[in-house]
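Homework-ish question, so no full write-ups if that breaks the rules, but can someone show me the predicted structure for this set?
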Amino acid sequence: MKRIVAVIRRELGIWRRRPIYLVGSVAVMAFCGIFYLTLLKDGVPSGLPIGVVDYDNSTLTRNFISQLDATQLGKVVRYDDFRQAREDMQKGQITSVCVLPEGMFADVQAQRQPEFTFYVNNLYFLGGSLAYKDILTMINLTSGAVQREVLRMKGVNEHSIMGRIRPVDVDVHLIGNPTMNYGAYLANMMLPGVLEMVIIIIVIYSLGTELKYGTSRHLLDTSGGSVTTAVAGKLALYTLLFTALGFSLVFLLYRWMGFRLAGSIWNMLIGMLLLVLSSEAVGVLIIGCVPVLRFALSIGALFSVFAFSMTGFTLPVEAMPAGVQGLACMFPLRHYYLFYVQEGIFGTGFAGWHMQTVYMLMFLLLPPLVLPRLKRAYVNLNFPKK
Amino acid sequence: MKENYIRLWLRDFWGIFTHELKTIFCDGGVLIIFFVAGLGYPLLYNLVYRNGILEDTPIAVVDRADCSESRRYIRKVDATRELSVAYRCTDMEQARRLMEERKVNGIIYFPADFGERLARMETAKLSVYADMSSFLYYKNLLMGSEFVMLDEVGQIQVERYSAAGFTGQESSQLVKAIPYGENLPYNRTFSYSIFLISAILLLIVQQVMFYGMSLLAGTAREENRSFATLPDSLHGRGVSRVVFGRGAAYWLLFMGLGIYIACIVPALCGFPQRGSYRDIVVLLMFFVTDCVFFCSAWSTFITRRESVFVLLLFMSPVLLFLTGFSWPTSAFPQFWKWFSYLFPSTFGCQAFININTAGCDLPMASMHLRALTLQAVIYYFLSCAAIYAENHVIRKRNAA
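A: Not a homework solution, just the prediction itself:
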């Protein structure tokens, strides 16, 4: 125990001399927190530029354009010809182009069914999908309005008109994110992902620099020759630091920002603690397997960048190729995500997420496997330093 | 005299250029980053996002109405590409439990009066519950149920108008008062991979170069050398040949890597390539030049070999968001818009998306190319200034 305290003291001294540890964790998390929460603070983007080419210039088309412009989502940009609009769409300056054909109003009056055409650039995903939805809603409403006029003229009463125009209606309920807040959706996973990245990199760096600068024997002297004590001492300090960061993150997301959480925030803290512990275990595993700082860091970097994709919160894992799906369980962030889905979206509590805690705890079995190897490296210093 | 200067400049340039290439190829860590990450990462992303489309999202159906219309609706939903009816439940409680167990990602609920309302020619409502843990579940649920709804609406309307004495022609004119044609020219199926990979490819070029160059700058510092040493014969007046000489080494390597990432990888993976190769190569020339100066300017701040990973790895996802591939740039807060102008990837990735995937030609990408050029000029002078300052410090230290 005394040894562990000595190792912690030594590590604190390193922190004082080299600010990189605190900058690389606290400052990075602070920057990312500010970045993701301010960039996406609106939740749903508004004022998406939608191009309109109006060849008709009638009351009907002007009405359509002003209604499209009046939606929260869209902002109409007018064009004189289609070519110009198409080029701007290709350049990504507008999300979509609506073409209102010549003689549209007259054709509608005469029931000649004029065709309305629209083009959407969905290479810019969110803007494209939202513009698509917005235009589709608008054109269906306009079509409905035309029907209503005809039915009114035929003398059908208002009550039955609604039944005729809209015989079936869909009521959509969004479980876990009722306002479709894109910012909350992304920040909920991006920020824990950054934390996982920080943990893996810092743990590798902290254990690896001992090798690189040949200070590992001094570390072992401090810990009384036991690599377990040395690693435990270092990790005790880092666990404290990262848990503090993780807990602040949970409170930031679900208290301060007020993102929706179906379950309890205290349970999220359990999930966060497990994410911290399992990510540390992954860090130790990597530096233990490859006791060369630069290789270990490269591997850690590849692993933690890749974790964002393999979590499956954007493209779900079941849509990935079968051979890749199994790999997802190698990433602590994946289990944290599944934990969050149970607690944050469905609020099922322990019954829903207990298996995820088991999986995350299983990561803790990994470091003991590599400690003997790490010890040999620490004692012999027989790996390239550069 | 003039000729002499040019010859000297070229000789120094050549010396620095070959020296830099030697340094790169003698450093295992840098080679790993340049070649394993540079060659492997684009393939890895293509592999993971190979399908890119989520199909047949399992849903549960709670049919309290049990009428022919609701059954028809369910059959149609099951037939859509987006959704597949995995379970039929007797009540919401059961469906909710299935959703919590993640056996289904959505629920469609038909209230008991669904058929009755349709028979009374009123609006019949049905409810859809979407699991928001991934937006693609929501998208599938929304699109699947809305497409079927629009189809059903059309069919029921025709039935009702016929019942009211309209002829077939009249009722179809009414129901489809304004028929519409939708075109999603660049990404017809809303494929996640097409939009993500278009954005990510050039970002890989920039990040790989940045990490590699910073690693070398850090190594040089650790070994008490400096990446910026000027040829001794010059007495500190040869800043431009150092910047160009080092830059040329990276430029050469990364034009090769860039052509691989931007032309060969998409072809290998069957990714849409609507731009011409010539245009892409021209874009790469601008982009790689800009990246070289960008990286040599910023890598001067790196003092130790590995610290770039600890301090700046988190920037990769941040830069990806700053390209505006997901959250639209038109909705960026002002500050982040300006911040994004600091990075070549913001313009490079957008230009690549537009040229490669949306089929722009070069004149249409001129705005982005101009921005890249301006950035390159600014970063060129910044890296000159950095090297000048570095040499100043070194000379002072040597004098002391």
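Now go work out the reasoning yourself. Hint: The domain at 48-165 of chain A is CATH 3.40.1710.10 (abc type-2 transporter like fold).
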